[in-house]
Design the sequence.
């Protein structure tokens, strides 16, 4: 009877972990969808809501490392000054993988169709649950 109870508890725990991971992944994908929609409306501030609003945010792109939320937003505004440049963004998500409790990495592709010039690339972003919200704390896009 004891073994059966232990087995039942183990199965219940594993089921709970799987449900939590599925819920986390759904929430992370929701953040990316909101970012994509904001970008496609030319709303760079709305797009940046998916990022951790901290000087510790890391963004690594073609021009090197940018530290901080505000500097990252400023770079986006400089590089994408109008709808001609922001165009239409679409993400292709390849993997959402748990690193540890409250942290996941997301690998994928971005596809930017715009008048200025089409841009495609890949990204690896790290999400962390901060005060109940999933935020990007590091972004490598190229």
Sequence:
């Amino acid at each position: 009877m004891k073994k059966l109870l232990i087995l039942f508890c183990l199965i219940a725990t594993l089921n709970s972990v799987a449900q939590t991971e599925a819920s986390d992944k759904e929430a992370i994908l929701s953040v990316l969808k909101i970012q994509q929609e904001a970008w496609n409306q030319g709303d760079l501030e709305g797009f940046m809501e998916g990022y951790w609003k901290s000087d510790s945010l890391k963004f690594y792109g073609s021009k090197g490392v940018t530290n901080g939320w505000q500097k990252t937003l400023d770079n986006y505004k400089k590089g994408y000054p109008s709808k001609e440049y922001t165009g239409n963004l679409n993400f292709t998500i390849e993997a959402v993988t748990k690193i540890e409790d409250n942290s996941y990495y997301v690998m994928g592709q971005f596809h930017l169709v715009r008048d200025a010039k089409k841009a495609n690339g890949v990204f690896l972003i790290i999400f962390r649950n901060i005060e109940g919200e999933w935020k990007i704390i590091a972004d490598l896009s190229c």
